[in-house]
Request: fold
Amino acid sequence: MISKNRPHETPPCPARASPIIAALSQPQPNTTVCTVTGKISGDATPVLREALTDARRDDNAHLVIDLSAVTSMDAIGLYALFEALNEHNLGGGHLAVVVDPHSQAIHELHILALQAAFDLHHELARALHACANAGTATRKTTPSDRRPPTSR
Reply:
């Protein structure tokens, strides 16, 4: 197992807000996992964006965003994940998201949005398996991929 953990944490927050931690690891060749713990909100999205930017710098074709330890996520957090999808698709590779199906932390509508755009899994092992079986040219089609070609 390749392991390179680099946690990213939010600066000290007010007592009412939970910190977010986004740790990167490489549990298998050519795949980076970004494990997110805590509350994904507007204040915490810079930490998530920085971790996902670092994950792309690892030059791995595949990325798994593990949200199974997230305590809550608002619409701004969801938007940050869609930004990551756009950035990752520019480089190709496979992008998977892990969500705990029994968690009440992520709103059902957000899970539906994630499912529509990402390769969604309920277990990290299944997401890693999907990445291992995906070629660098194989990825989930996004709405931007379905645009008709422009004529010159």
User: Anything to note?
Assistant: The CA atoms of residues 63 and 73 lie 20 Å apart. The two ends are 49 Å apart (CA to CA).
